Amino acid sequence: MFTRSTIGIAIIVMAVSSTAALAQAPAPKITRIRGDIVSLNDNTLVVHRNSGDTVSITLPPDVQISAVKRIKLSDIKPGSFIGTAATTGVNGEMTATEVHVFDESARGTGEGHRAFDLGPNSTMTNANVDSVVKSTSGNVLQLSYKGGTNTVTVPANVPVVSFISADRSDLTVGKKVIATAAPAAGGQFTAQRILVEKNGVVPPM
C-alpha cells in the first residue's frame, strides 16, 4: 500500500530522472544551408541548396539576419578579431579561402579552431590577429585563440569582408544565402542565423 510520502518520493524520483534524461539528450545538429532563395512566405524561407535539393527553413521572429561588405586585406591589422576558412596543404601550411572581420563588440564569437564544411580539408579559425607579415604569396597572419595558435596565409585574391545589418526585406528571390539552422520535423529546418547577399556581395564563408 502506497502512502502519501512514498507517492511524493516517487514523483520526485521521476522528475529527477526526466531532468537527467533531458540533460543527457544530444543537442540538435547544426547545419549550414548554402544556396539561392526560391521564396519567402510568412516565416518560411525556401532555399535551393548548392547540393541540388530544395529545403524549407522556418524563421523565428528573433532570427539574426546579416550581410557582408567587402573590405581590403590591409584592413586586417594586429588586434583584429577575425574568422577565416582555410585549407591545409600537404606541407601542413594553412591557406585562407576567405576572411571575415568581426566588430569589436563581437570579439570572442565562436573563438577556436575546428573542422568546417566549405570543402575538403576545410577548417574555421576564429581568433585574434597577433601579427601581420606581408609576403610574396599574400599576408601571413599569426593567430591566437583560447587553447592554441595558428599561422594562415591570406592570398591577395581571397575575399575579405566585414558584417553589416540586413533584414527580411533583403530575403528576395535569387539572392545567395547561408542559413545556420537546426533540423526540425518533416525534413524542415529552423534558422538560427541568416547571412544574405546584399549590394551584390555574396557571403564567402
Fill in the keyword field for this structure.
10% helix; 205 residues; single chain; 13 strands; disordered N terminus; 13-stranded mixed beta sheet; mainly beta
Task: Give the % helix.
Answer: 10-25%
Roughly how many Å is the radius of gyration?
22 Å
List the secondary-structure elements in sequence, H or E: HEEEEEEEEEEEEE
The main sheet comes to: 13 strands, mixed
Mean pLDDT: 88
Describe the structure.
This protein is mainly beta. Helix content is about 10%, strand content about 50%. The chain has one domain. Strands 1, 2, 3, 4, 5, 6, 7, 8, 9, 10, 11, 12 and 13 form a 13-stranded mixed beta sheet that branches. A hairpin with a 4-residue loop joins β2 (about 45-50) and β3 (about 55-60). It is elongated, with a radius of gyration of 22 Å. The termini are far apart.
